[in-house]
Amino acid sequence: MPPTPSAAWKYFTRSSDKKSATCNLCGVNLTYIQGGTTSNLLNHINNKHPYSASSNDAGDSKKQSSMSSFLSTPNKVCVSESERITCAIAEK
């Protein structure tokens, strides 16, 4: 059974000579030798485009939460801080 293609190829296009690959997100050209590993390609995605790759696509990238998710998640604020903020707003 042939090996599973790397997730890197979702973000890169191989050159015709198969010695390099071009990032589909920013156009940078990275060295790649067919039959080698795609670690340098995945490292590029994780380091330069961390929010473009989901956590299971390109290793340990961190996915940015959506604005609606951020706004709907209540912040844990102690009562005294909450009162201080409310008073500061009420004074304006």
Provide structural commentary.
This protein has 92 residues and is of the alpha+beta class. A 3-stranded antiparallel beta sheet has the order 1-2-3, covered by helices on one side. A hairpin with a 5-residue loop joins strand 2 and strand 3. The radius of gyration is 22 Å and the shape is rod-shaped. 12% of the residues are buried. It holds the Pfam family zf-BED.
What are the key terms here?
92 residues, alpha+beta, three-stranded antiparallel sheet, 3 strands, 32% helix, rod-shaped
Number of continuous helical runs: 3
DSSP E strands, number: 3
* Main sheet: strand order: 1-2-3
Low-confidence stretches at least 5 residues in length (pLDDT < 50)?
A: none
What does the oligomeric state look like here?
single chain
Helix content percent band = 25-40%
Order of helices and strands: EEEHHH
Describe the sheet with the most strands: 3 strands, antiparallel
